[in-house]
Amino acid sequence: MIKVLKFGGSSLASGESFAKVKRIIEADQSRRVVVVSAPGKRFSGDTKITDLLYILHAHIKYNAPYTEVFEKIKDRYREIHASCGLKQDLETELINIEANLNKKTSVDYIVSRGEYLNARLMAEYLGYTFVDSADWLYFGYNGKVDFEKTYAALQHIMETHSKIVIPGFYGVNYHNNIKTFSRGGSDITGAIAAAAIDADMYENWTDVSGIMTVDPRIVENPKPIDKVTFSELRELSYMGAEVLHEETVFPVRSKNIPLYIKNTNDMNAPGTLIMESFEDDDKGTNFITGISGKKNYSIITVAKNRMNEELGYIRRTLEIFENLGVSIEHVPSSIDSFSIVVASSAIENCLHELISKINERLAPDSVQIVNEVSLIAIVGRKLADNIGIAGKIFTALGENDINIRMIEQGADEINIIIGVNDTDYKKAIKVLYDLANN
Ligand code: ASP
Fold first, then answer.
1. Which end of the chain is more exposed for a tag (fewer CB within 10 A), N or C?
2. Using an 8 Å Cβ cutoff, are 53 and 77 in contact?
3. Neighbour order of strands in the sheet with 272-275
4. pTM (predicted TM-score)
């Protein structure tokens, strides 16, 4: 059994948090591959090391004195080094990094040092081997990860090392220069490591007890989701739930590796388990897995009597959107009319052109636009097996005077999307959350 663990910056912000992480790792012998972020915020108002490194880069690039900001960065690592009683020569490591700093030093190299140093310290603290991501995580010519080469390199390393610590967030490009992922990218490093070695589990340790059923800014202390499938997660994140870095899911999903979201500050909390499917699912309870949503959509409704008899009517309308570069979210339809749902921001600069082209080419009886609409996704793999759920949802919303402007159900029946006025957005989410939990 082998588990890959990734710890986020908030779990590694100080010597004290290092101690918590060590307890977690030592509680389970199979926790053998550890991926770390750079130290995050210790308190609200504090600055993440990665942000300080971006500032450091800007200072160097524009010839501004950078000693002060670099000292701040060094002090964070010195605190961890001292508080964990480490013996490695941190000062020489810092001097070596400083020796590489000049106007031409790439931003990727500079910001990657955040995870690099943290991984070095964590490796000694755990008694694990430090494995630099520059030695196994390869980007190809197209700027994407070269999975074949990367997987083979890490497998090779694991043949001789059984317990390792890896810095997240970066690898090397085809010129062997450091290249980082986008922000939050250590999640991806963890997923790639797990997939490379066919791990039994990928545990992603953060500062919350899993993925919440609903946005905690709308419902106070919502329940975490205990189990969610990859497809459900995709629906929830597409509609705004902030969970993991988007690219995280692919490597573990392709190898069917269970992904756990766990809380470093509450190691025994169950967290959220993400898998392709769950064999032990009971049909009856918790028919809603999660609810997420976004504001500011527009619904454009095109109506024409006997539209169903005109071949290609919808296609020709959609083509107008395509030619204007407007991405379409949903197309609910009836016999003589259909609606096109788009993000309002996508049409704000081309609305007049869009409407006049529709009028010109399709001669509809009417084109109506409703703005300030929110879309809410009610996601649940058990929706399909339960009769009357849609009825319950609409009754609950109706009883609370919430006008539903649009309804759509995905073909795989794992989600129901409703459109409500932006002014009803929060209220609707609260009503749906109560419905899901009663
Ligand atoms: N340290 C990087 C960031 O703050 C990467 C990560 O933490 O995932 O974005």
1. C
2. no
3. 129-130, 164-167, 31-36, 3-7, 201-206, 259-263, 272-275, 227-229
4. 0.88
The residue out of 175, 207, 239 marking a domain boundary is 207
- State whether the beta carbon of 182 lies less than 6 angstroms from ligand 1: no
Q: Say how many domains are in the chain.
A: 2
Asked whether residue 110 is domain-assigned, the answer is yes
Q: Would you say 320 and 329 are in contact if contact means Cβ atoms under 8 Å apart?
A: no
Tell me if 113 CB under 6 Å of ligand 1: no
DSSP helix/strand/coil, 270: coil
**Contact 38 CB / ligand 1 (< 6 Å):** yes
Count Cα atoms within 13 angstroms, Cβ side, for 181: 24
pLDDT of residue 281: 74
From the list 379, 378, 376, the residue with the least C-alpha distance to 421 is 376
Burial 166-180 (b: 16+ CB within 10 A, else e): bbbbbbbeeeeebbb
Domain end (from 174, 207, 240): 207
Query: Are residues 301 and 168 located together in one domain of the fold?
Result: no
Could you read off the pLDDT of 311-343 as tens digits, one per residue?
999 999 999 999 999 999 999 999 999 999 999
Instruction: Name the token pair of 285.
Output: 């309870």
pLDDT of residue 179: 98
State which residues form the domain around 16: 3-207
Distance from the CA of 8 to the center of ligand 1, in angstroms?
8
